[in-house]
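Quick one, tokens below. Sequence please?
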């Protein structure tokens, strides 16, 4: 605290008061951790205070996927993202998706779960529309986003409703896409190629066009290629778009997080994108990570970011073996960091079947502001079969429809220590 000073008179008192104010301000500024300055003040640390399974949201996707009357709708998918539309509906976006019909388990021990036909089609992406009341209604024609070339595909990630162009009254949906290419060896889920942005019309959700905003083919090392769109957060006229690298080709337990920014309404304009190079924003720069040391700190290839009372909070699967079940978080006063953590974690509930629990993993936590409220933050996560061979994993999730659908938890945040 600043000591109380003896009163002064006249012009001399004014100068003394100003001087004292400047000294106190300097003391307070020095007292802030150097890394936590954002504007003129530090933001508040945030961590998970409590969490609980959100059975209502999980159950709605189970209800929709288990409907045996449809033969061409969504029965399961991963890469779960959502965006609230202006008319109150919610658009749900998925990466690899099972379509087709599901079947009730026969009266035999060998097939205790509702199952998908082994010949059920699988597409690279899909979209499902939810009503304003929270009921899933229909699957759009899938795949919604066509393959860009043979042996390449598109996975939708974060989406935002924004003006068709800066200052326009007309709204459209912008969907960020990850373009990946088939490969072998460690890249069994594809090599990163580019980040694209699709424009969907409103209210009919028709794909109007797809624009490439970040081509990564010139980056020789696939591990250093950055795909943007894991999360998108709006703040003060900017949309901050988070992305990352893939650490799957090495023994590193975590990937690096990066961030770009775009003026609100300009996601589909490549020239409007600016990237963080470690010191400043720029268009033609070498992006530098904002989080990740390749060891204890870092992110999975998919993660999510939200703002809570001015603080940026990032959720990701924990590094190392805990990442098979545990969601952890980081906080920062700025999208560029520094990011503090990891803070308190929680274990994502897996299917109750004990035999299934031993062979499954949680991944891809995503925030869904459209489902939250009253201080609650709703996160989804995906569940898949633990197998390094995609064909084996697909066979197992075909036998049990509950394994390849989003599950939800409801969180409350509090100050981190």
């Amino acid at each position: 605290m600043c000591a109380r000073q003896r009163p002064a008179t006249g012009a001399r008192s004014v100068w003394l008061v100003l001087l004292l104010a400047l000294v106190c301000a300097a003391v307070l500024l020095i007292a802030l951790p150097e890394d936590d300055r954002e504007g003129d003040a530090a933001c508040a640390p945030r961590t998970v205070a409590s969490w609980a399974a959100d059975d209502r949201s999980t159950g709605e996707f189970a209800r929709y996927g288990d409907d045996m009357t449809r033969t061409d709708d969504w029965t399961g998918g991963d890469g779960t993202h959502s965006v609230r539309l202006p008319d109150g509906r919610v658009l749900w976006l998925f990466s690899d998706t099972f379509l087709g019909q599901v079947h009730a388990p026969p009266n035999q021990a060998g097939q205790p779960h509702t199952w998908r036909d082994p010949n059920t089609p699988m597409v690279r992406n899909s979209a499902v529309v939810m009503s304003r009341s929270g009921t899933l209604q229909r699957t759009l024609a899938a795949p919604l986003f066509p393959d860009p070339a043979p042996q390449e595909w598109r996975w939708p990630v974060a989406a935002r409703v924004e003006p068709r162009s800066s200052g326009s009254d007309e709204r459209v949906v912008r969907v960020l896409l990850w373009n990946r290419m088939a490969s072998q060896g460690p890249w069994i889920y594809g090599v990163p190629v580019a980040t694209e942005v699709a424009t969907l019309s409103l209210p009919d959700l028709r794909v109007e066009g797809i624009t490439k905003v970040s081509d990564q083919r010139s980056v020789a090392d696939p591990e250093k290629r950055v795909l943007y769109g894991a999360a998108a957060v709006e703040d003060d006229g900017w949309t901050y778009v988070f992305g990352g690298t893939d650490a799957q080709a090495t023994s590193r337990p975590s990937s690096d997080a990066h961030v770009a920014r775009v003026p609100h309404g300009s996601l589909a304009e490549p020239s409007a994108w600016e990237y963080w190079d470690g010191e400043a924003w720029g268009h033609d720069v070498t992006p530098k990570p904002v989080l990740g040391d390749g060891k204890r700190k870092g992110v999975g290839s998919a993660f999510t970011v939200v703002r809570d009372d001015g603080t940026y909070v990032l959720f990701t699967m924990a590094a190392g073996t805990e990442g098979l079940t545990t969601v952890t978080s980081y906080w920062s006063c700025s999208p560029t960091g520094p990011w503090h953590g990891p803070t308190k974690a929680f274990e994502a509930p897996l299917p109750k079947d004990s035999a299934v629990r031993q062979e499954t993993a949680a991944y891809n936590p995503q925030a869904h502001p459209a489902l939250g409220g009253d201080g609650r933050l709703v996160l989804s996560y995906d569940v898949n079969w633990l197998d390094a061979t995609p064909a084996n994993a697909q066979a197992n999730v075909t036998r049990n429809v509950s394994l390849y659908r989003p599950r939800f938890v409801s969180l409350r945040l509090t100050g981190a220590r």
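The chain has a mean pLDDT of 85. The longest strand covers residues 152-163.
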